[in-house]
Every structure is written in C-alpha cells, then in structure tokens.
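User: Study the chain.
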Amino acid sequence: MRYHFTIVVPVYNEEDNLLRVETELLAYTKIASKTTRILFVNDGSKDKSQSIIEDICNRNLEFSYISFKENRGLSAAIKAGFDHTETELVGYIDSDLQTAPSDFNLLLEHIEKNDLVTGVRANRKDSFVKNMSSTIANGIRRTFTHDGMDDTGCPLKVIKTEYAKRIPMFKGLHRFLPAMVLLQNGNIKQIPVQHFPRIAGEAKYGLWNRLLGPLMDCFAYLWMKKKYINYDVAKKG
C-alpha cells in the first residue's frame, strides 16, 4: 500500500496508554481521508513502553517505530519523526490521547491550501492551573512570533512534509511549529478540535515547562528568526 499521511506518536513512559493508542489509531486508519501509517518514537522510556510498541508493530502493518537510546525530549522525538517520514504529509498526536485521532480528518480538509494546519483545543478538560499557564504562555508566544495562533501547544497538527523537514528543531521548538512554517513563507491555519481528560499515565510538564521554559524559548526563537536562511531555487541544470 502507498501511504500519503504519517502520524508521529512521541512516547515517554506511556505503558498504560499504548493499547488504547493502538485501538484508536487503528480505527482511524479505516476512516482516514488519506491512507495513513503510524510511527511511534520512543523517547527513551524506562517502563514497558518499548515492548508494547514492538508487539503493536508486529501485529499491525500500519505501525512502525524508532526508539532512542536515551530520553531526549519532545522536540527531539518530533524531529526524529519528521526525519523518518516518507509520505507527503506528516502529523503528530500525543500518546495520552487527550485529542481525538478522528479530528485529523478536519485538519486534512484544509491542508491542500495550507502548509500547516493545527488544532485548537475547544473546551479544554485540564486543571485550572494548566489551562491558565497555557493561556499565558500562548499569549507570550504570540507577542514574540506574531503567528496569530491561539493554541500552539495543541498536540494535533498536520504539516506538508517538505516544510516539516526544513524546520531547524531544537529543544522547546515544538511550541513554535506554526511560526517556523511562517519563516518558510508557508501558510498556516487553526481549526477547533475536541479535547478530553487524561485517562492514564502522568503529565510530563509542570508549571516551569508550561510557562517559564517557553518564555526562555521565545528568545531562542527570535535568535533563530534573525539567523534563519530561506531561499528559492530559480533554475538548476
């Protein structure tokens, strides 16, 4: 089968969620508007995630994986997923499944005229502290990036792979994917998507990661924006 869309699933100590990930993503492949494969990126998990991932991939042709030697962080996992994608479209979803795989179809409706389409979590089911810190962090990022995005942390995105592979990822830059596509003169769009409470496992981000860390990352983004190289080839022979 020729696939057109790869869903990257970063994993770090999510043994309690992975069988549900298998069930829901396998169900999605049967209703997906693009032929879809799933790529797990195991970010150095210390629990049983790797053995569960291997079992899932052994029984499902649509699933494959790469596994890091050690924990390198979400940005590294997403970059590795982009680097190992061979389809024309790539997306990602968190393994906690607080967003619905079926909503990828909503994003895919708009990808032809855009280069990145991201979800905006409607009626978020997180704690007050998490919601407030996220709102503040998004406001800070908009001030720095002028990307117009309301929820850059939403773990449901679709990107044209040629743009995704050109994003110079560094730690924390996963929060700036729309801004980095804009640096490539690409078009971006946001679409409301569903949001659900976490059912199993533990959140990997605290107040520092959601608020103070992203503020520091904004300065890294400004440096990247100033130094970013962008060019179009007019002719080659």
